[in-house]
Every structure is written in C-alpha cells, then in structure tokens.
Design brief:
two-stranded antiparallel ribbon, 2 helices, 14% strand, alpha+beta, single chain, 25% helix, 72 residues
Length: 72
C-alpha cells in the first residue's frame, strides 16, 4: 500500500479496483513532482515503487518510455 510509507493523502488516488496509486496531473506527470526542479516533493515519504527503482537506471528509463508512449 502506498500509505505504508506515509504518502500524504492529496497525492494518493484510488483506482476503479480500489488500489492506491500516485495521483497524476492532467498531463500524466506525478502530482508530487516539482516541475521546475524535477525533484520529488515528498522524497522521504515516497512510495515503495519509487524506492525500488534507482533513478536513471535501465528499469527507470524503460518505465519512463512506456509511460510516455501510453499518453494520448
């Protein structure tokens, strides 16, 4: 669960199946990302999925590319 790491409620979205996900802005960016600095505003409280990926790693880059290709 995302709440296990202390993510503030305003950054959590409950999907149609009841799962907790990080809230996204209308353009698909994570709501916790500072657009100017490109840094996480809740870094110390980030969810486990964000902790599992080393920033800039191959897995991170793959996820970013897949996320971009899924946008309309």
């Amino acid at each position: 669960m995302i709440t296990d790491t202390g993510v503030p409620e305003e950054y959590i979205k409950i999907d149609e199946w009841g799962a907790e996900t990080m809230a996204r802005l209308d353009d698909g960016w994570c709501a916790a990302l500072d657009r100017e600095t490109k840094m996480c505003t809740i870094y110390e409280l980030r969810p486990w999925v964000c902790r599992e990926f080393e920033m800039g790693s191959g897995e991170c880059q793959t996820e970013r590319l897949e996320g971009l290709s899924a946008r309309p």
